[in-house]
Design goal:
With about 250 residues, this protein is an alpha/beta fold. It contains 9 helices and 7 strands. GO terms for molecular function: methyltransferase activity.
Amino acid sequence: MDRNLIGDLAHADHPVAAPLADDTVDALLRHALDGQRSVLDLGCGDGTWLLRALRLQPGLHAVGVDLSGAGFERTRTAADAEGLGDRLALHVADAATWSSDERFDVVLSIGATHAFGGLVPTVEAAASHLGPSGRLLVGGCFWEQPPGARALEALGAAAGDYRDLASTVEAVRAVGWEPLDGHVSSLAEWDAYEWSWTGSLTRWAVEHPEHPSSAEVLEVAAQHRTAWLGGYRGTLGFVTLLLVQRPVH
């Protein structure tokens, strides 16, 4: 089965593709969107963040870009049913190379740092789409504690792939951005996300035993669960930062 489709199935019950609770997502969006008129989401997944943003901010214009496009039609249908469809545009394209003449009041990129080569490159890429006095809302991983061999093997990562939390924030500041707000995902948020990710795939496989990809999907869920529980649980962290550009004096 196509990996993008597997990813879409995995997020059936947790469409926000990051370890964030619903109330946290809404709180971050309210702060980021306060008084703003347009938002771009780079690596938007199925567009869930944008749909939630439109619900929260009347008059907001929302644009999303994702290489997969899995789930776009579902999100467009939901937006149309709620009378929000005329304010939502979703594009199937590489978020790292997509370009537009439009500049946005807010640019989001949550859990998509792999598309840009890390958190700092994500910040810099997102900033290129931002209008004057705009805000960035970015989210990515860091090390909650120094990673051991099991965590690195489970993630297929190297110790240098991420920093600790303090160094992560300082790396963003070093390229000219200051945090207005932030959220460090709790272990409970991580657990809820991972149980949902693996459980959604398991349920689909059990409910579709005759599908030619049923065994494959069940194995993906099992491998992911083993990597999480036996490898990176409690070691890999996730931080979401609301950023503004530092004034030049």
